[in-house]
């Protein structure tokens, strides 16, 4: 058991796979286990999960720097972005980064949008002439960070809306994304929640351009009054984009996200980035200022050496979060040797 940032984590030595699956604080795992125990004996009613959903919704808003009333809930990033894609005109021109994670791009391509890919560093300069920009704050494959200030300036000057995927950034980076048109993130990586919860922040200026393609009873102003019969009656705000929650996932998120939101995220970023940059420096490589590192190494060889990492885009991908230590860096260096 490791103790970090005021919480206990049953994370094994050499675990560097947070960009794939985050390890929860013990209290989060205990909350989910208790919910499963109640389910086993029929101890909950559907409405009992509402406080968990709302607690996680508010904490997500805090983590990405938007008002809570803008946030809709769902279970996956692509599912949420499909509502953005459905609101685009036919043949829309969508700009993204080369090698972008496909949950951030496939919803648009599947709707017939014309996708233009450019190197991440060139993204702000290519904004004009497009109908939308969709990009991750931190790239999944290698942790490269988008220049958000430059992107914001270019998008505002050109009047081009932007959808930001914060999945690989929220939880370790301090974020103030209230300027973005849409902000989406999945919860099971750096947000330390069970898989099956995601959130979409919708700026009021693009609410009418967002289509609730999977509208259900849960998207009503009062879900318990929209369970049967017509007419269509959706909530007035961002809750009109809500998807029915995966209960146990939101139980975990209701414990994990408020914990993360209570931390000094600048200190979390400094901790995570210091470990990542220490690794790079020791390997004779330039620092990158990200918690995610892609290495020219054999992931299977790392596994045999006791390092838990991922194979992504032909490289071994590792990530350093608040529960990692310098010992993990040393273990990885030994494995690489």
TrEMBL record:
Residues 43-284 form the Aminotransferase class V domain. InterPro entries: Aminotrans_V_dom, PyrdxlP-dep_Trfase, PyrdxlP-dep_Trfase_major, PyrdxlP-dep_Trfase_small. Gene3D superfamilies: Aspartate Aminotransferase, domain 1, Type I PLP-dependent aspartate aminotransferase-like (Major domain). Signal peptide: none annotated. Keywords: Antibiotic biosynthesis, Lyase. It comes from the Bacteria. SUPFAM superfamilies: PLP-dependent transferases (SSF53383). PANTHER family: CYSTEINE DESULFURASE, PYRIDOXAL PHOSPHATE (PLP)-DEPENDENT ASPARTATE AMINOTRANSFERASE SUPERFAMILY. This is Selenocysteine lyase/cysteine desulfurase. It comes from Amycolatopsis thermophila.
């Amino acid at each position: 058991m490791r103790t970090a940032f005021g919480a206990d984590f049953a994370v094994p030595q050499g675990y560097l796979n947070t960009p794939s699956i985050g390890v929860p604080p013990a209290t989060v795992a205990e909350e989910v286990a208790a919910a499963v125990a109640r389910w086993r004996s029929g101890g909950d009613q559907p409405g009992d999960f509402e406080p968990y959903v709302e607690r996680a919704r508010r904490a997500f808003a805090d983590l990405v720097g938007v008002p809570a009333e803008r946030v809709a809930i769902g279970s996956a990033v692509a599912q949420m972005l499909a509502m953005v894609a459905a609101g685009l005109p036919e043949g829309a021109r969508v700009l993204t980064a080369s090698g972008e994670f496909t949950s951030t791009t496939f919803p648009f391509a599947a709707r017939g949008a014309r996708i233009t890919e450019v190197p991440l560093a060139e993204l702000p300069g290519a904004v004009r002439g497009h109908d939308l920009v969709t990009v991750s704050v931190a790239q999944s494959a290698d942790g490269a960070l988008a220049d958000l200030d430059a992107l914001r300036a270019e998008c505002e000057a050109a009047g081009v809306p932007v959808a930001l995927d914060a999945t690989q950034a929220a939880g370790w980076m301090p974020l103030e994304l209230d300027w973005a048109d849409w902000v989406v993130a999945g919860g099971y990586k750096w947000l330390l929640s069970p898989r099956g919860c995601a959130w979409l922040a919708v700026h009021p200026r693009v609410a009418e351009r967002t289509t609730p393609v999977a509208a259900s009873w849960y998207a009503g102003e009062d879900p318990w009054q929209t369970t049967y019969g017509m007419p269509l009656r959706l909530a007035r705000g961002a809750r009109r984009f809500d998807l029915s929650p995966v209960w146990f996932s939101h139980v975990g998120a209701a414990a994990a996200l408020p914990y993360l939101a209570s931390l000094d995220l600048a200190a979390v970023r400094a901790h995570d980035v210091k470990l990542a940059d220490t690794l790079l420096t020791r390997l004779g490589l330039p620092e990158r200022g990200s918690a995610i590192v892609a290495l020219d190494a054999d992931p299977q060889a790392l596994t045999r050496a006791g390092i838990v990492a991922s194979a992504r885009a032909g490289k071994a991908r590792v990530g350093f979060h608040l529960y990692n230590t310098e010992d993990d860096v040393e273990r990885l260096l030994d494995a690489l040797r």
